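Forum > Structural Biology > Help requests

Title: Can anyone predict the 3D structure of LIMR family protein?

Hi all, first post here. I have the sequence for LIMR family protein but no way to get a structure on my laptop. I'd be grateful if someone could post the structure tokens.
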Amino acid sequence: MGDFNLALVIVAVVLVVIVFVFNVYLLVNYQHPDDKNQAYFPKFVVVLGLSVAAISILMLPADVANRQACRHALYNGACKLTLPMKNLWLAVYILDAVLVFLIIPFAMFYYEGDQDKSVGKRIGSALCWVGVSAVVCGLVLGILYGLVGKVDFTVRHLSSSTVSFPSSWDFSSSQQCLGGSKQCAAYTASDASKKTWTMRTTFPEYVVALATIVGSVLFTIFGGVGIACLPLGLIFSFVQRPKAVITRSQYIKEATELGKKAKELKKAADALHQEERSGSKGRKWRKNVKAVEKELLQLEEDVKLLEEVYPQGEQAETAWAMTVLGYLAKLVLGVLGLIVSVAWVAHIVIYLLINPPLSPFLNEVFIKLDDIWGLLGTVAFAFFCFYLLIAVIAGAMMLGMKLVFITIHPMKWGGHSYEFILFNVALILLSSISVIQFCSTAFAYYAQATAAQEIFGHTLESLRGIRFLYKYNVFQIAFIILAGLTLVYYTIFGWRRKKTSGRFQLSS
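Reply #1:
Sure, ran it for you. Structure tokens for LIMR family protein below:
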């Protein structure tokens, strides 16, 4: 048992290091070229936020493995070498909330501050905005907690009469109570025995519950789209791959057209910058800014594609060979991802939407894998949970989202400044809480008696005002519908190549 826990600790430490290294790699490749060798604080926040999101997902399998370390003990405390998972969960939740509601907004306000101001003034301005946001959020949470911060548990009130101690017991499946009563057994009691037990939840649990609800909305949108677009995007990327290298004359022709397009966009950007200086930032100006940003992203994609189909330099043949191998890797990963996505959707339908469940499905697969080797089922469980988070990230990168005050643009490789990256990190952090809750529900049979289930328990599903969202599986149904719509979209439009747009002009 001690060796098992030692291996678990070693695996946990190694995974944490791998997660941090991988997120640094993502940051380096997604950041805008102008942000290199500067803005170190936002970079640290991005790496920390993505790492917390990934580690929080991996903690659920660790929770399961931690429980299995003492599965032969009479009680969990009998094993003194287990990880303190409940304390770790609370620490991760607190860090998640601090990042989403304090540190990331501060980094965004500081990064977007006037570069001509001193560092002290930019810090003071960012702290002011974060303070106002914190006060508003605190007031909203306090009011909601005071009004509806209660949980309503549906229970059965069971009772039994008393009789003299008999010489023999006469019980059957139809008569399980003493004295002819039927109110002592939950299965035979009448509906009148159902009662509602109301109690006030703790404020931290209420904050976690509300954050989970907000994250569930984002998870449903991004996860539903991502579970389909993640594998299909890789497969159709292979389908639309360049088949051969173009000639030099074709390259010159295409490069000339892209150069003209770049000049048009520069002219439009200069005009918008002049309008900004003059103070005329109306609806038309914002519309034109979004149009320029969209055309700029398309131009960057066209330039990247042109570089792929006409590699230059001494290693041109090697570069083309790596391009071909890259597309083949996308095909293989896309097929494997499609199998995992289909398994996820099938599991949601079989185990969550149908009542009673037709089969434990993936739960039973994980249990059988554990019988082969102690951590094999846990590794498979971790893979499915982490795949769901990757699907959420893929959905956020592809879809983008328009909110009231800000537009979240689809993430592109090497093309974003930190205000966009930070906002997407905040969305991923919020979604990660819901991914944990979703996985603990979807794999409840396998992940039973874990600290995660103790924290979530029935409190979230019994919270006043929102329990019907879980009672009627609203999020799961919306998840399946969005996945189906994304599949239809890729089936109809995924085969088509994007056509290059013509001459760009600002709307007048």
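Residues 316-353 form the longest helix (38 residues). The radius of gyration is 28 Å.
Shout if anything looks off.
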